Amino acid sequence: xxxxxYLGNRHQQLLTDAYQHVSAVFQCMVIATVLGxxxxxxTYRSGWAGSLAIxxxxxILTIPSLAAIGLLIPLVGLGVAPTVITLTLYGLLPIVRNxxxxxxxxxxxxxxxxxxxxxxxxxxxxxxxxxxxxxPILTGIRVSTQMLMGIAAIAAYASGPGLGNEIFRGIASLGxxxxxxxxxxxxxxxxxxxxxxxxxxxxxxxxxxxxGIRV
Length: 215
Prior knowledge:
- By secondary structure, this protein is mainly α.
- The protein is built from nine helices and no strands.
- The model has no long low-confidence stretch (mean pLDDT 89).
């Protein structure tokens, strides 16, 4: 069976796996973004706290993703839980780092001017600092998403959702007629989804970043 025939015969399952893959990555990115920006906001004013936040989240990436999922299985079981925890933790570093860098890069004169007109600290953060730090934060989100698209495939090891199931099925049946088609379909599907995600972020950047501060 050719690759195109395989896609035609299995398109419903592939679409289901692709939807689950996108859903898992998107939901974990939302959680990682909220946590990452919050960590950045809390730590960016302190040199040691910022360094600790970046080092801690960087340390997570030194753990092989397959090992991280394997260690979580006895604690939370198979399926969605280890996938969500692993993807969220792995997505933190670029967002935390870029949040800290972006917030530290805001011109102090602008913050002083806002303070001078009586703007409260939360208002300064929400109306001045975070909007100006948004371009690097968005870049961090884009980098995290590209990482998680690939890492999410490993979730199939723990019966997680997504296109990784197609890849693992192909690897498990190497030598059979459709083994290569399964691996290729899963891999190309992840690449296409990653490109679509990135295009969406480019559009989001154009809609949310004023032309004058676009990187």
